[in-house]
Amino acid sequence: MSSVLYDQPGPVARRRERIGSIVGGLLIIVLLALAFRYADQRGLFGADRWDVLYDPPKNQSAEDVWRSMVVRGLGATLRAAAVAAPLALLLGIVLAVWRTTRYRWLRLPATAVIELFRGLPVLLMMLFALLGFGWDAFGSVVFGLTVYNMAIIAEILRAGLASLPRGQAEAAYAIGLSRAQTLRLVLLPQAVRTMLPSLIAQMVVLLKDSSLGFIVGYPELLKAMQNNAQYFGNTYYVALFVLGAGIYLVVNLSLTRLAVWLQGRSTRTAGKLTVDPTLPAGSAGGGYGGFAAGAGGAGPV
Description:
By secondary structure, the protein is mostly helical. The chain contains 10 helices and no strands.
């Protein structure tokens, strides 16, 4: 018995997998125990190392600490991501369509733009906007996040378009749709739906990359954590780090769950498409999504 991607393991392989899982699990438990022991010996679990979260020193209240981290720090992070993400998505769509044009002399500039910004570090582009353009910290962070992620999103969408059968476009042209209408009504919606998990995952990367903004002076979550640690003292670095890491995890896991929910919803919606028996052969109900019924081999858009 075999699956689509690989042969099902036999009894010997399954036994090896179980042994490997048990050994790996025990090794992880041992490493965690050693880590906790080392942390305990250094006094990292003492109440005096964590009271900054509920009874901070220097006449500050816990509300002040949490507000600086959650409201100001996380708020600045989300604000930069909320501006950069739509811009990156929009420009990524433009680049993906531009790169899939039939004319090679038109594809080359788009390919150059994508390869250039995909190969440069996000921080370098933030610094370029800050020092070269003279922009403020917020504009520099948004610029760096946008130009880098638009290149990645363009490649994701290009892969989605390339995965569609050639018959999708041929069927659209056969009923009189132009190339622009074919892309807008037939191909791009399917490519976005197919690549939705990858797009959401890239949004998570964009959100995490916003933490580089503290280097250019943007007061995002990591900068708020650093400011609190410098104000209250290095003793509280671990507690503030755990708080900041927990906030990042909650936000990113929420986005991941959103991706899973959207993927399941789109799968259920696609499964409800039915074929109308009154339509000619090779056509399907459910609007433009029915082009898949008459699709041929894969090929360029």
